[in-house]
Write a structure and sequence with these properties.
By secondary structure, this protein is of the alpha/beta class. The chain is built from 7 helices and 7 strands; from the N terminus they run H-H-E-E-H-E-H-E-H-E-H-E-E-H.
Length: about 170
């Protein structure tokens, strides 16, 4: 039993240290060059979306209207927005159709800048940002540096704390 406990402790310690190593401070060239669908129907490169956020603390949420965890997190997100009005919010949807994406924005009254990946969660943009779960939150500081690369719906305390620090 002691061996199993020690094995579990070693695995958790290793996993946590690997997760910390995965923290990135900038996006890959592949991610930056990916194009997303803007709410006006045009295509825009991810790097151009980020350029518009220059000088602003920004929270990026990757979500989808069909995602139960995303919908459950909406009240927490709205509370985060109410408590951090000086922060810019960018939403990137992983919906399969633009109609479903726009219906989700309207239904949940999501305030911020809206974009949609052209090929879903498992597509090239999702791959370029190491997407393995939604909702996913990324925090970028005013200088354009990634401060939090991977937070999920259970990490709102960490997200709020980070926003207060930067």
């Amino acid at each position: 039993m002691k061996k199993i406990t020690l094995l579990i402790i070693a695995f958790v310690t290793f996993s946590c240290s690997q997760a910390q190593k995965a923290q990135k401070t900038e996006f890959s060239e592949k991610a930056l060059s990916e194009t997303l669908l803007a709410s006006d129907g045009s295509q825009i490169k991810f790097q151009d979306i980020l350029k518009k956020q220059k000088g602003k603390t920004t929270v990026i949420e990757i979500w989808a209207s069909w995602c139960g965890d995303c919908v459950k997190a909406m009240p927490k997100l709205k509370e985060l927005q109410a408590n951090n009005t000086n922060v810019s919010y960018v939403f990137i949807s992983m919906d399969k159709t633009a109609d479903k994406w726009k219906e989700g924005i309207e239904k949940h009254q999501i305030k911020g800048s809206h974009f949609m990946a052209n090929d879903g969660m498992k597509g090239s943009f999702g791959s370029a940002i190491d997407l393995d779960w939604i909702p996913r939150y990324i925090i970028i500081d005013k200088k354009g540096k990634i401060v939090v690369y991977r937070a999920i719906e259970t990490d709102f305390a960490q997200i709020d704390e980070t926003l207060k620090k930067i």
